[in-house]
Amino acid sequence: MSADTLTAIEGIVRDLLIFVGVMVVLLIALIVVVSLLPPTNPLKRVLTALSYRVGATAAAGALAIPVEPIPGLDAVYDIGVPLFLIWYWYKFFRDIGRHWSQTPPKRSSS
Length: 110
Fold this sequence. Notes:
mainly alpha
């Protein structure tokens, strides 16, 4: 590779890293702003439900590594977890209209 090619690749990688850094800062700002919203806000309820789904999906992926070497359990895991995740995400998309349209009842302080 010539020096010009390496310089071009270095510039592309630098720009991508800057972009990723800016996106991380924007994500953190969004999380802070959403966390300050009242619990009855539809955006907060939808993003909370979405974060639960993303967390469950990540946990299922992380759990796959230690489960795979165990005979029998890996087959149950390979069938059960995708079915559970499909149902869990389906419930999110089914109920998203309810999250936007209705406000939850106010909690009593008693």
